[in-house]
């Protein structure tokens, strides 16, 4: 009888297709977004996140069409991110059927964007995504932008706190060091951010074995965990994973 | 025809889409006449309690009250459910419909807020809206304020204390969670509403 930990399937979309890379590179085709979203939803995913990783370079209308088709297939929460730079662009994505939008580079460039979207659509609709990388000197984590191509100099934890203050409803925290490796979430990063804010933190990057999920919920204190490849390529099934998590004492939504 | 009341506070397409899926004939409208004449009324809600003030400004509050007076089934979702109570601490100067007694309050500080995610329904008494729903079913919540437990509470949820997840009395129904986002359980609830 408690709030369950969410398991989120992420669709990284490039040119209308789901792709997945390792550490933000080496893209590999994984299928049609709407089909995959529906399959994940039926298999027991608690939420779908669609990130347009090509958005800054390509035509927005392709994305909106993808969002429309995907939203039409699922009856669970649906978040869309990638290249949203203004309130108007966010409005287009909401109109296409997203429940929440995720903003990253644009929020760092202009944090008032968080507040403006939150005032119109509510904080629950605004996810601030933070791509974080361990600093080379070993002290703390730095936020990166532009799909992990540019360091900002800003501390990931402090940025999360500011995002909360400005009206973010959730933090989607990706470890760039672990992304696509399946080697386990960065629990140190996740815990640092989860303890620094009062809004839910979604851990991303490194999800693999059941144990990696157990660790991110127990040690990392994550509220939700997001993964892509392990679900698309069938290495983990939601129901199996959730049953194993339940055995490990983690509250999950079952049956789903 | 079900009127989905559009009071310019967020995205109503997901509610419309879910009602379509369960075979319910519905229309998104901000026309008071259409709302007053509808067979059923759904008031979705996202965002701030004060957004409900616009219902009065657009003449929609009177239309909703007229439909309720005529005994038409009414479903409030999220803030739409909170609006069925007297008031909310989120906007104390804004009055609710007062169909249920009490004020909506913020979550206590010992839990994270907003309450976001799938949480369990604890069924308290028999309910037409929840017919066929298994006890302990999970549904999707996202809110920072919550309604108290009242006589009409047919299901509660636990998060920093118990609160009303579903209220029901005669033809009045309110759900704090989002049935349109709660997978098969949520669709069943909307189907139950369609069948009323």
Description:
The complex is a heterodimer of chains A (256) and B (196). By secondary structure, chain A is an alpha/beta fold. Chain A has a single domain (6-247), classed as TIM Barrel. Chain A has ten helices and twelve strands. Helix content of chain A is 35%, strand content 27%. Chain B is an alpha/beta fold. Chain B has one domain: Rossmann fold. Chain B has helices at 13-21, 32-37, 53-57, 60-69, 79-82, 183-195; strands at residues 2-5, 26-29, 40-43, 74-77, 87-88, 103-106, 115-120, 122-123, 138-143, 145-146, 153-158, 162-169, 172-175. An eight-stranded mixed beta sheet of chain B has the order 2-1-3-4-13-12-11-8, with helices on both faces. In chain B, strands 5-6-10 form a three-stranded mixed beta sheet, with no helix packed on it. Chain B has a two-stranded antiparallel sheet with strand order 7-9. In chain B, strand 12 (162-169) and strand 13 form a beta hairpin. The longest helix of chain B has 13 residues, at 183-195. In chain B, 53% of the residues are buried.
């Amino acid at each position: 009888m408690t709030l369950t930990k969410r398991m989120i399937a992420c669709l990284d979309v490039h040119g209308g297709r789901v792709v997945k890379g390792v550490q933000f590179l080496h893209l590999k085709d994984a299928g049609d977004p709407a089909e995959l979203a529906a399959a994940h939803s039926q298999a027991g995913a608690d939420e779908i996140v669609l990130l347009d990783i090509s958005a800054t370079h390509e035509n927005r209308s392709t994305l909106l069409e993808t969002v429309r088709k995907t939203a039409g297939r699922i009856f669970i929460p649906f978040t869309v991110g990638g290249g949203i730079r203004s309130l108007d662009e966010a409005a287009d994505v909401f109109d296409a059927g997203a429940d929440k939008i995720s903003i990253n580079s644009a929020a760092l460039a202009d944090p008032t964007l968080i507040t403006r979207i939150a005032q119109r659509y509510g904080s629950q609709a605004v996810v601030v995504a933070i791509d974080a990388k361990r600093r080379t000197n070993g002290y703390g984590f730095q936020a990166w932008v532009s799909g992990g191509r540019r360091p900002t100099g800003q501390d990931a934890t402090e940025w999360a706190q500011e995002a909360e203050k400005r009206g973010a409803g959730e933090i989607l925290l990706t470890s760039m060091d672990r992304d696509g490796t399946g080697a386990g979430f960065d629990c140190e990063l996740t815990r640092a951010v989860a303890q620094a804010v009062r809004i839910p933190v979604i851990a991303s990057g490194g999800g693999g074995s059941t144990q990696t999920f157990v660790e991110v919920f127990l040690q990392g204190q994550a509220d939700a965990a997001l993964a892509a490849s392990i679900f698309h390529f069938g290495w983990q099934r939601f129901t199996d994973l959730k049953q194993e998590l339940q055995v490990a004492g983690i509250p999950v939504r079952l049956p789903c | 025809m079900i009127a989905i009341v559009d009071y310019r506070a967020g995205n109503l397409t997901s509610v419309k889409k879910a009602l379509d899926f369960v075979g319910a004939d519905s229309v998104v409208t901000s026309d008071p006449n259409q709302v007053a004449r509808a067979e059923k009324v759904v008031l979705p809600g996202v965002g701030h309690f004060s957004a409900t003030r616009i219902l009065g400004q657009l003449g929609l509050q009177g239309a909703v009250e007229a439909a309720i007076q005529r005994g038409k089934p009414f479903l409030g979702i999220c803030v739409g459910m909170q609006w069925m109570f007297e008031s909310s601490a989120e906007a104390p100067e804004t009055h609710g419909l007062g169909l249920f007694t009490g004020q909506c309050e913020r979550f206590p500080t010992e839990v994270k807020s907003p309450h976001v995610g799938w949480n369990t329904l604890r069924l308290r008494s028999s309910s037409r809206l929840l017919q066929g729903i298994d006890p302990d079913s999970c549904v999707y919540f996202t809110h920072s304020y919550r309604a108290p437990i009242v006589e009409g509470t047919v299901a509660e949820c636990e998060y920093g204390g118990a609160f009303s997840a579903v209220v029901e009395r005669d033809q009045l129904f309110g759900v704090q969670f989002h049935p349109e986002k709660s997978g098969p359980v949520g669709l069943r609830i909307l189907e139950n509403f369609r069948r009323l």
